[in-house]
Design a protein that fits this description.
- The protein has 15 helices and twelve strands.
- With 382 residues, the chain is α/β, with parallel strands linked by helices.
- Strand 6, helix 8 and strand 7 form a beta-alpha-beta unit.
- The chain binds 4'-deoxy-4'-aminopyridoxal-5'-phosphate and glutamine.
- Glutamine binds next to loops.
- The site of glutamine has 4 residues, from loops.
């Protein structure tokens, strides 16, 4: 008996986060590669989870998520972005943003459909598109500054374009979409039936008084969009894999068909804890200043090294340009940084069209000051 094991994802290699994380462990490196905090979440949030478990919320949650969580999310979105999502029919709690994104793509992308990705693009979009028979059309951000050429974006649209995926604040560049980016996108999609998937997992990590341009602020976008968000980023709980999707009901009803028969529901006790915890807006609105302080701590600590940088506008990732130091590709340089110096980062060419390489590495600064200080000491030696 032989089995036909033709891969559905031929050529797909383990993700850069798996590779760099394993190397970091092997070499006992300071790990600023995969994005996760090395400090604990708020004990009050942990106590709420504990209380929810002890109260008996240990069986399945309702398919779309508990109502009180959807309700508090609806209010939060309304207050922050001035758009009203009906908690009954327009918000679904998911097992992380990755699941929300996979579900959104699976619900709408058919074989032969084109999906426009703005590159560098976070790595979970492309395999989901391929598994659904879709075709990726890439629009590469320009140069080291990662600006978007909206003319080029417009010319990537064809009659087969089914969906566009955007991500702001943007991983890995750390830039945020401006109002004029959002207006250009809105204009480009006017009079089309193209859907929008907006990955806004870093919505609260925006610095220097700037504003997160949620798709929810733009009527011409939100009417065609699925907004995917992660609680992992907002509450320092990436290991909980909790998130949600907000979308108009005509999209959400299809989204839920896939969600129901893929996961049915997300973690029940954590939903109760989050519903209570979210009642206090300071718990997420304080995140920008908190991470801005970490960014600035890190950037002050590396002042005087041979790395060049522009402070990131959002996310918890800082790009450092090593072109004054080496001609190596970013993957080679990132590997050597681990093996020779004991510091792990993420080379960003892997997220680019044709592995375009601008000699920039991504460093996660969601770390304790002592970790950032150790990393900076290493960067000073290079
Ligand atoms: N999108 C982006 C841009 C991310 O950086 C991440 C980080 N993991 C995700 C989606 C996935 O979020 P989650 O961990 O909630 O699945
Ligand atoms: N979002 C995290 C990052 O960009 C990685 C999560 C993962 O490993 N899939 O670092």
């Amino acid at each position: 008996m032989t089995f036909d094991l033709t891969s559905k994802l031929p050529g797909l290699e383990p993700s850069i986060f798996t590779v760099m994380g394993a190397m970091a462990r092997e070499h006992n490196a300071v790990n600023l590669s995969q994005g996760f905090p090395d400090f604990e979440p708020d004990p009050e949030l942990l106590a709420l989870v504990d209380a929810a478990m002890r109260t008996g919320y240990n069986q399945y949650a309702p398919m779309a998520g508990i109502y009180s969580l959807r309700e508090v999310l609806s209010k939060k979105i309304n207050t922050l972005y001035d758009h009203s999502f009906n908690p009954d029919s327009e918000i679904t709690v998911t097992s992380g943003a990755t699941q929300a994104i996979f579900t959104a793509i699976t619900a709408f992308v058919n074989p032969g459909d084109e999906v426009i990705l703005i590159r560098p693009a976070y790595d979970c979009y492309e395999p989901a598109i391929h598994l659904n028979g879709g075709k990726v059309v890439s629009v590469q951000m320009k140069g080291k500054d990662h600006n978007i050429d909206w003319e080029e974006f417009r010319s990537a649209i064809t009659t087969r374009t089914r969906m566009v995926i955007i991500n702001t604040p943007h991983n890995p560049s750390g830039r945020i979409f401006s109002q004029s980016d959002m207006r250009a996108l809105e204009q480009a999609l006017t009079n089309t039936d193209i859907l929008l998937l907006s990955d806004e997992v870093y919505e609260h990590l925006v610095f220097d008084g700037k504003q997160h341009e949620s798709v929810a602020r733009y009527p011409g976008l939100v009417s065609r969009a699925m907004i995917c968000v992660s609680f992992g980023k907002t509450f320092h709980t990436t290991g909980w894999k909790m998130g949600y999707c907000a979308a108009p009901d005509y999209l959400m009803s299809e989204f839920r068909k896939v969600h129901e028969f893929n996961v049915y529901c997300a973690n029940h006790p954590i939903q109760h804890a989050l519903a209570s915890y979210l009642e206090e807006p300071g718990r997420y609105l304080g995140l920008g200043p908190f991470f801005q302080q970490k960014r600035d701590f890190f950037l002050n600590a590396i002042a005087g090294t041979r790395f060049n940088f522009t402070p990131c506008e959002g996310t918890y990732f800082q790009l450092l340009d090593y072109s004054r130091i080496s001609e190596e590709t970013d993957t080679d340089f990132a590997r050597r940084l681990i093996t020779d110096y004991g510091l792990a980062s993420i080379p960003i060419s892997v997220f680019n069209e044709n592995r375009e390489d601008h000699r920039q590495l991504r460093f996660c600064f969601a770390k304790k000051e002592e970790t950032l200080t150790r990393a900076a000491e290493i960067l000073h030696k290079i």
